[in-house]
Amino acid sequence: MNGFSALVLAGSRGGADPVAQAAGVSHKGLATVGDETLLARVVGALMLAGAGRIAISTNDPQIEAAAIAMASAGGAVFIEPLPATVSPSQSVAEAFATLGAPLLVTTVDHALLQAEWIEQFLADTPPDADIAALLAPEPVVQAAVPDTQRTWLKLRDGRYSGCNLFYLATARAAAAVELWRTVERHRKQPWKIAGVLGIDMLAQYLTGRLSLDEAVARLGAKAGVKAAAVRSAYGLAAVDVDKPADLELVRRIAAAQAAAQPPPASDG
């Protein structure tokens, strides 16, 4: 799918970010892997996957400056900064109102992001889905990167890790983003989240009675949309940079990938 719009979340909840501190930069998106910043790596993958418009949601002046510099060198791809808001869900809601559907959403710390993963995700999203999320099964993640620590969703059919890739396929996906905003507003009040999502659904999740597809479909139904879970065949898609150890991990992986690349052909 060529010419799609994409949103890169590069906001901040405030306070010192440990990755940025470890890298000596104002925002973790400016930390480097190889000779590229995390921001440049993510934007580059989106461009290779065929994005025609890329918005970078940020409240960091240096990230914004980098986005503007990328825009001048982006060629046919339109790159623009957008102001981040107080939460990721609100930033997505406001960007979605500006960019419209379909919209691919990812994060600036998705340092290993590959165009192939994006293309496969878009191809595997059911044509009738309003919104889709990419998740990686535990065996796939463990096979690719056994030394990573992930947060797992524990479901009847196994454990899954989120891959920081979401596809808002239709305008109806705005309702799902609004449900996310509601849950995020109540993140410190779990009884209110239970009221929003339903005690029965939470009980079935906590007791391991929901499969991944059932859980995502029921969340979508709460918002009045058709939601789909797409399983990734790429375990590295579950790796992001939340802490300094993650940054060192992706640097090692990226260095190994670069070393495995064949040398450029000689003109002679």
Structural topology:
Elements: E1 4-10, H1 18-23, E2 32-33, E3 36-37, H2 38-48, E4 51-58, H3 61-73, E5 78-83, H4 88-99, E6 103-107, H5 115-124, E7 131-137, H6 138-144, E8 153-155, E9 158-168, H7 173-185, H8 190-197, H9 199-206, H10 212-223, E10 227-231, H11 244-260
Parallel strand pairs: 1-4, 1-6, 4-5, 7-10
Antiparallel strand pairs: 2-3, 6-9, 7-9, 8-9
Helix pairs in contact: 4-7, 7-10
Protein described:
It contains eleven helices and ten strands. With 268 residues, it is α/β, with parallel strands linked by helices. It has a domain at 4-173 and 226-240: Spore Coat Polysaccharide Biosynthesis Protein SpsA, Chain A. Strands 1, 4, 5, 6, 7, 8, 9 and 10 form an eight-stranded mixed sheet that branches. Strands 2-3 form a two-stranded antiparallel ribbon. The mean pLDDT is 91.
Euclidean distance between termini CA atoms: 38 Å
Gross morphology: globular
**What's the CATH class of the domain at 4-173 and 226-240, please?**
Alpha Beta
Average pLDDT value? 91
Question: Main sheet?
Answer: 8 strands, mixed
Treating each run of at least 4 consecutive H or I residues as one helix, how many helices? 11
> What's the alpha carbon Rg, rounded to whole Å?
19 Å
Q: In sequence order, what are the helices and strands, one letter per element?
A: EHEEHEHEHEHEHEEHHHHEH
What is the fourth-level CATH superfamily of the domain at 4-173 and 226-240? Spore Coat Polysaccharide Biosynthesis Protein SpsA, Chain A
Strand content range: 15-25%
What's the helical proportion of residues? 40-55%
